[in-house]
Amino acid sequence: MTTQPTASHFIDGQYVEDTAGEVIDVIYPATGKSIATLHAATPAIVEQALASAKRAQKEWASWTATDRGRVLRKAADIMRERNHELSVLETYDTGKPYQETSVADATSGAEALEYFGGLAASITGEHIQLGEDFVYTRREPLGVCVGIGAWNYPTQIACWKAAPALACGNAMVFKPSEMTPLCALKVAEILVEAGAPAGVYNVIQGYGAVGASLISDPRVDKVSLTGSVPTGRKVYAAAAEGMRHVTMELGGKSPLVIFDDADLENAVSGAILGNFYSTGQVCSNGTRVFVQKGIKDAFLKRMTERLAGIKMGDPQDPDVNFGPMVSERQRDIVEGFIAKGNEEGATLVTGGKRVDGEGFYLEATVFADVTDGMTIARDEIFGPVMSVLDFDTEEEVLERANATEFGLAAGVFTADLTRAHRMAAGFEAGTCYINTYNLAPVEAPFGGSKMSGVGRENSKAAIEHYSQIKGVYVAMGEVEAPF
Ligand SMILES: NC(=O)c1ccc[n+]([C@@H]2O[C@H](COP(=O)([O-])OP(=O)(O)OC[C@H]3O[C@@H](n4cnc5c(N)ncnc54)[C@H](O)[C@@H]3O)[C@@H](O)[C@H]2O)c1
Ligand SMILES: C[N+](C)(C)CCCC=O
């Protein structure tokens, strides 16, 4: 497969290049070798993208919602037909194993396009009768939306933003992460092939400065960021300057609580999904695993046995189920956290070492006897590191689970369903799980509370964040005035 795209940017329905932009060297995480060279957007490219989105949005919004929905559903079909090719590219972009990308990335993107394509025609206002007079509301697009992506799910993030934005009649300029710039270009190509007018969905590349220049442009009505909390703070503040709408999908340090009465095998599976999928590079991961004391030894034993089933290697090999980290830098950061865990007195149960040779491989790592104040229990690590903390009572664990600035996700494993619902109600998190972890179907809202974010992606809730209501008062009689 050719990983070098036709050009760096996709604007107004076609590939565009400007070699004056800063070089972006795309590295395959499994080998550490360059697989493509792109250029960050120059001010001229940013201008072209925004002008094109501004112009195209008017036309797109004038289509019936049914017609817009048909384009999105056709794009979903194309994505499904090309799932293999798109999954191979996602694996080159991120290093995630093909075993994962072939079921979780273009497929999730297609589901979003299909779901919001189906919903488009049902995005309506309402009628409010006021005696003889009445008010009707129109649910209107916001205009030009900017999407900014993180590197862990490049296809999914591009589609989770494009699908609701376009269903509501907006246009989008999307800037992928500089670490994984390839996949969003394919989403743009597919939308045009499915019939989206040129300019409705544009992709431009760049580092943070390109993202920042998009946000401050007066033509922009909304910014949707998927990224870290520090970047979220900056982006939210810049968006506030221009009173722009925002969606912030940010980081987390989510709790996963396992009671003594939980089904052990399911709890271990949930903790694996919540810590080691995508080599641990998942925002919603339940990295603080609170295990009730009575089940702790059995949990750690079974976890260690199950992790022996990891098959690390060439992520394009369909038998491999654990890939490298996205970059050398990210592996260094995670190794720094592992060192802190050791220094601060946690017990290393398994893993903890990098794998020598090419690529950015790091072992799946489990620490036990972690306490709330340790660095590995407080900071988002964004790598394959699980921290196991002990607890005694429900009341105690809920308080400790919530004692964090983050609020992205939370999970509980227990056979006591009354307790499970009490815990879900008590968690300070936007996305909660009972007896499972990290599923994100498009029909359900996904997003965080506290410092983990603002707004929701997926589900009908996303429509609220890509549209605005206009109220129209209609008088049926004479106008009364005081003088
Ligand atoms: N909540 C979610 O849905 C979700 C999903 C995936 C990742 N994440 C989070 O993303 C983080 C990992 O991704 P990352 O390292 O790419 O995050 P990051 O914050 O470093 O970068 C995210 C994006 O923001 C851009 N950016 C950086 N500075 C900017 C600025 N000043 N203005 C505008 N754009 C700017 C980057 O170029 C990149 O495209 C983790 O914290 C993870 O939890 C959250
Ligand atoms: C679908 N997952 C696995 C929950 C990932 C959502 C995006 C967060 O990183």
UniProtKB/TrEMBL annotation:
- GO MF term set: betaine-aldehyde dehydrogenase (NAD+) activity; metal ion binding
Q: A Pfam family this protein belongs to?
A: Aldedh
List the SUPFAM superfamilies: ALDH-like
Keywords, alphabetical: Metal-binding, NAD, Oxidation, Oxidoreductase, Potassium
InterPro entries per record: Ald_DH/histidinol_DH, Ald_DH_C, Ald_DH_CS_CYS, Ald_DH_CS_GLU, Ald_DH_N, Aldehyde_DH_dom, BADH
Describe the location of the Aldehyde dehydrogenase domain by residue ranges. 16-471
A GO biological process of this protein is: glycine betaine biosynthetic process from choline
The record's EC number reads: 1.2.1.8
Q: Where is the active site?
A: 249
Q: What class of enzyme is it?
A: oxidoreductase
Report the sequence similarity comment from the record: Belongs to the aldehyde dehydrogenase family.
Q: What is this protein called?
A: Betaine-aldehyde dehydrogenase
